[in-house]
């Protein structure tokens, strides 16, 4: 977590620098992303091992923490990418850049779904407020790109978007943070999605196997759509 905090601090310094300086420092973004990728690679594939055996934490908490670390690193990488452009308008005007952004945002949704579906929906309440903010950022990016490129991305990203909305609705009864207006955020997101006709996908003809999580189903769906586009 300390390494992730350090990377986030460097990211904010980069984002808040003047536009000409950001333009000259694309290499800096690549280096920051390299650091973040190393962090991801160093997250153990197995469960987190407690430092003290006497302080053994439950499995669902260790798995959830690992997924939260991945989600946070992914969020910082998106900030790095957005910050490498003069403005969000500059980014969104370039089709390839917009595609990178919306794909990255959908991947963040998938990680968040995995975290929330972990061990029957058990997630530490301490992680949820930050997870909500990361998710809100990703959904905003999805709406932004779909509003500019509806033909290319409306059908492809309808499923992850509305799955995330469903997850936010579940958070309402769990997250106890007066600074977060989850209900208001959901209403605004739905209002924008209706305006750009990012409608919920039709129900599947057959339900997914119970052993498959919603996240794995979304990931397979996104890959299929990308390969066909």
Report on the structure:
This protein is 71% helix and 0% strand. With 229 residues, the protein is mostly helical.
What is the gist of this entry?
With about 230 residues, the chain is mostly helical.
Helix/strand-derived category reads mainly alpha
Poorly predicted runs of 5 or more residues: 209-226
Instruction: State the order of secondary-structure elements, H for helix, E for strand.
Output: HHHHHHHHHH
Span between termini:
37 Å
Question: What percent of residues adopt helix (DSSP H or I)?
Answer: over 70%
Shape descriptor? globular
Q: Average pLDDT, to the nearest integer? A: 76
Strand content: under 5%
- State the total count of DSSP E strands: 0
Q: What is this structure's SSE topology?
A:
Elements: H1 2-15, H2 19-24, H3 26-42, H4 59-83, H5 88-92, H6 95-117, H7 128-148, H8 150-171, H9 182-195, H10 214-228
Helix pairs in contact: 1-3, 1-4, 3-4, 4-6, 4-7, 6-7, 6-8, 6-10, 7-8, 7-9, 8-9, 8-10
Can you give keywords for this protein?
229 residues, mainly alpha, globular
């Amino acid at each position: 977590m300390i390494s992730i905090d350090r990377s986030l601090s460097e990211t904010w310094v980069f984002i808040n620098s003047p536009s000409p300086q950001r333009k000259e420092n694309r290499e800096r973004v690549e280096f920051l992303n390299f650091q973040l990728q190393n962090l991801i690679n160093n997250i153990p594939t197995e469960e987190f091992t407690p430092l003290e055996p006497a302080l053994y934490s439950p499995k669902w908490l260790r798995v959830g923490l690992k997924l939260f670390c991945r989600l946070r690193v992914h969020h910082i990488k998106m900030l790095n990418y957005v910050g490498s452009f003069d403005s969000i308008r500059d980014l969104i005007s370039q089709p390839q850049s917009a595609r990178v952004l919306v794909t990255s945002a959908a991947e963040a949704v998938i990680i968040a779904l995995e975290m929330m579906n972990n061990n029957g929906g058990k997630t530490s309440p301490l992680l949820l407020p930050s997870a909500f903010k990361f998710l809100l950022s990703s959904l905003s990016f999805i709406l932004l790109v779909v509003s500019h490129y509806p033909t290319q991305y409306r059908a492809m990203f309808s499923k992850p978007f509305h799955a995330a909305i469903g997850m936010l609705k579940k958070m309402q009864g769990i997250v106890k943070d007066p600074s977060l207006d989850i209900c208001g955020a959901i209403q605004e997101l739905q209002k924008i999605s209706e305006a750009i006709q990012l409608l919920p996908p039709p129900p599947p003809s057959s339900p997914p196997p119970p052993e498959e999580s919603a996240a794995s189903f979304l990931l397979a769906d996104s890959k299929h759509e990308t390969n066909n586009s």
